Amino acid sequence: MQSKTDPTDHAPTNRDFDKLYAPLHRSILAGNLSGIAQRDNRFEYNVCGGGKFVLWPGSGLQKKSIDKSRKESGAELAGQTGLPHWIVATERLETSRKYLRTAAQIDVNWIEPLAKHLIQRVYLEPHWDSETGYVHAFEKVSLFGIVLVPKRRINYGPIDPQVSRDIFIQSALVEGDFATNLPFFVHNQSLLNEAIKMQDKARQPDMIRPESARVQFYQERLPDEVFDKRSLEKYAKEHPTQHWHMTFADLCAIAADVSAFPDKLQTPDKLQTFDIEYRYAPGDMDDGLTLLVPQENIRQLEPARVGWLVPGLMERKITALLKSLPKEIRRQIVPIPDTVKELLGKIRFGEGDLEGQVCKEVTRLVGRIVVPTDFNTEQLPTELRMNVRVLDTDGSILGESRDFLSLRKELAPPLAASADARGVETKKPEREFYEAHKREIKTQIQYLPNVDKLKLYAKTLPGFDFNEEVGLLIAARALESVQTETYKPPEGGGFAPSAKSPTLG
After folding, report:
1. Tell me: the pLDDT tens digits for 156-204?
2. Distance separating alpha carbons of residues 257 and 265, to the nearest angstrom
3. pTM exceeding the 0.70 threshold for the entire prediction
4. Concatenated DSSP letters for 245-291?
């Protein structure tokens, strides 16, 4: 008796296929590798060597019939057919259409192990991955023109050690995309960071050698078997790596004196130090040097010290000052580079006022008096004028400017009045002396050498009272004469202090 049940109702499940048919189909595949076919996004199959075929209508792999009209239109979707994605067929039949007969379902993962000697591998996009510590690539696997694996990420190092080594050196060691505690790498990265800072300080964008120099450094020293993190750490564990440590000469094409660009500015009395920030950003407001000054210490910073900048920029500033002189003076000190060189041998950094020192030496060279007002300081580049940033106690910015005198006048806290033992406010001795003899001191000021030019220069300093400031200096000098017992009575005119009074001489 024939069963009324449709045979297709007993189609094997995935579990039955694995148990009953997989070993058999794998054996068939091993002897017929050229018979594999891959279903595309419709109901057709791509076969080895090229071409498209469909399954024979009577094949057991057809799980449901296809309506005749839909056959002719070719509108049947692969997802609706239930056809296996990979098959192996022993017969190809070409009539009005191309058919595959005697076909069996296979697993694509069976093909690669069976066809190792026939498959083709193509490696694309080799790249460094800092998380894994390997050089990876994407592998494309194909057999007789059929792609088995379109894109698989693999470790590329053992496949092409030379290319992997080049990528590892460039991306990991030179560009620094590498996580390791190996001493040579930590040292080299630290040295590179210092060189970058030094390049900004010296304002020489071509100081650091190009990356190709660092690539060559490692190419000459790393053995061929080092091409990833694992091989590098293994080699470093078994061999010395001191010759992998870079020096400034390896990194920099131009030598620079690190001490000439300090990170801190110290007051002449060495009681206060202020942090200096360097930035190389031509055109930006904070280009050049920025001095960080707490508000409570702003009075301890002298304008003359601010004008010196740092030793490494002294030559540039003197050059800029000389170039800003009037033509009739400037033409007497050409060539400027030779004059600058001579001045650098005579001027000591930090002693007095830079502009005053330059005036003194230029006066000696040209035989006529040169004063600071002869310099056109507006022509000085931004980076040759110190930017002073005043900070609050919590580190917030209260203000910043390259005009330090105006900034100090605006933000300096009021001077605390001193008091004697009875709590009565007192004044400084030189202030008392100045106020007691203000008229006589002003007379003395009128006879100072070049007083007219000095007054003219003083007008360029915001908030600077020439008579009062110079008068206080004269008063202090007079008081010192008493302490050092150098009192001499004034000759004629003026006021006559007592035997124990200071003199203005």
Report:
1. 999 999 999 999 999 999 999 999 999 999 999 999 999 999 999 999 9
2. 17
3. no
4. ---HHHHBSS---GGGS-SEEE-TTSS-EEEEEEE--TTSTT-EEEE
